[in-house]
Design brief:
Blueprint lengths: L12 H14 L1 E2 L7 H4 L20 E6 L4 H16 L3 E6 L4 H11 L4 E4 L3 H5 L7 E5 L5 E6 L4 H11 L1
Parallel strand pairs: 2-3, 3-4
Antiparallel strand pairs: 1-6, 2-5, 5-6
Helix pairs in contact: 3-6
Length: 165
């Protein structure tokens, strides 16, 4: 898509147009994956135990696919957890890059209290996670109701979680 020059008073319109295009691309809804997503969340936790997806049943959940080196992820993790807690939803952070040691550091730094999974690439591939943060809002039945790519505003996450109830 070509960028068009926009006249501004004292700055390059091309730069402004590029910034606006980049910002628009970072915050959009994605296709919603089919099936029971909660059941597929089988990956090791930070303690190397296998996560039991049945613990998510009965409440909406915010599942955030993240990387320990992504600044947007580091902002989204505590924001997502706070929003989910405010509406009585579960939170899951799936680390799709890095290792368990990196995930431990992020969890400590962000004070994340939700479920933490360390993906070996299986979930990333299954859900075609091309970039992070990637968030799925699950209903009480484990099925995805919304999917987002990029860092989201609290209000977007809250509205999606409330609609998933």
């Amino acid at each position: 898509m070509p960028l068009h020059r926009v006249r501004t008073k004292g700055g390059s319109g091309l730069i402004l147009a590029g910034i606006l295009l980049a910002l628009a691309a970072c915050h959009h809804a994605e296709a919603i994956p089919p099936g029971n997503v909660a059941e597929s969340l089988v990956a090791p936790t930070l303690g190397d135990a296998v996560f039991d997806p049945k613990t998510l049943a009965g409440k909406p959940a915010l599942v955030m696919f993240v990387s320990p080196t992504c600044s947007h992820c580091l902002a989204e993790i505590p924001r997502g957890e706070e929003v989910a807690r405010s509406v009585g939803a579960n939170t899951v952070a799936v680390f799709v890059a890095g290792n368990a040691d990196a995930a431990v550091k992020v969890v400590a730094d962000t004070k994340f209290k939700g479920t933490v999974l360390v993906d070996d690439g299986t979930l990333k591939k299954q859900y075609d996670v091309r970039a992070v943060p990637y968030a799925l809002v699950l209903g009480p039945d484990g099925k995805a109701r919304a999917a987002y790519l990029g860092e989201q505003e609290s209000s977007t996450l809250k509205d999606a979680l409330l609609a998933a109830k």
